[in-house]
Amino acid sequence: MGLQDMKNKLFHKVEEMNEPPEWEKVLAEEQEDMETVANEYQKEEDDPDAVESEESRKAARNVDIPQTKLNLDATKEYAVIVDDVVKVFGEEQVLKHVSHAFERGKVHGIIGNNGSGKTVMLKCICGFMKPTTGRVLVHGKEIGKDVDFPDDIGIIIESPGFLPTKTGFRNLQILASLKGKIGREEIIRTIERVGLDPALKKPVSKYSLGMRQRLGIAQAIMEDPDLLILDEPFNGLDKYGVEDIRKIIQDLKELNKTILLVSHNGEDIRLLCDTVCEMDAGILREVYHDEEE
């Protein structure tokens, strides 16, 4: 089977597996997920043992899934290494011995049904959640041990959150001030790059869904990070917006950036990704690898 045939076969598989739901349903599901995560975080603050109890850790060890051994190629550089990660919420095993190494400078697609564990894995990579067992390394540093959060990373996970009464430019200016890496000119160029007007006086609360998504992508890329975590970055975009963001991702790949891309759209996966992994009920496996890259 030729390379193009493999890509086309994968494309059709994604389309069949991930029938895009109506946008309103997606928003409702994401809001429910965010509330669940917020409740779990509150439990951790009130009682550190409420979530990550000994019973949870014991349940993690008893997951009836064989541990996947990492086979790292000494000739390659890896931006992200997920090593035997298990995540348990109460009695539910969300990630089951997930092991995978994401090579530097490539676009890695992650597919799977809603609720399969994709976003939870991304949050473990970003340091937003702690694995019950296992470890995550980003740029060679273990998250939660060497650093709390990865350095040099841009993130868009779930619905981008902004100060609703501020303009898009002011929101990015406030975020950029936290690290002090970039100034006014870089922010303006980034806003223009994603197809928005940096001089727009409209507050974010008046933005359309597509405009907010573009602004979310702008905040992820504005500091020129080496690693990008993009969870459904095309949500809410019209066909012109999708073309714009695909072009940005392709340009970033040319600059040797590493991108982890979650998308329900098989066309995005087919056009952009060098490798594809499928998450199914908390189990991750690679289903495509472009050997010609």
Task: Record keyword descriptors for this entry.
single chain; 293 residues; alpha/beta; 6-stranded mixed β-sheet; 4-stranded antiparallel β-sheet; 9 helices; 38% helix; 22% strand
Describe the structure.
- By secondary structure, the chain is an alpha/beta fold.
- 38% of the residues lie in helices and 22% in strands.
- It has nine helices and ten strands.
- The strands form two sheets. The chain has a six-stranded mixed beta sheet, sandwiched between helices. The protein has a four-stranded antiparallel beta sheet with strand order 2-1-4-5, with helices on both faces.
- A hairpin with a 2-residue loop joins strand 4 and strand 5.
- Helix 6 crosses helix 7.
- The chain is globular, with a radius of gyration of 19 Å.
- About 8% of the residues have low confidence.
The ordered H/E elements are HHHEEEHEEEHHHEHEHEE
CA gyration radius, whole angstroms: 19 Å
Q: What is the helix content? A: 25-40%
Could you tell me the mean pLDDT? 82
Q: What is the CA-CA span between the terminal residues?
A: 17 Å
The helix-and-strand class reads alpha/beta
Biggest sheet, in brief?
6 strands, mixed
**Strand segment tally:** 10
Name the strands of the widest sheet in spatial order.
6-7-8-3-9-10
Put simply, the count of helices is 9
What spatial form do the alpha-carbon principal axes imply? globular
Q: What fraction of the residues are assigned to beta strands by DSSP?
A: 15-25%
Uncertain parts: 18-27, 40-51
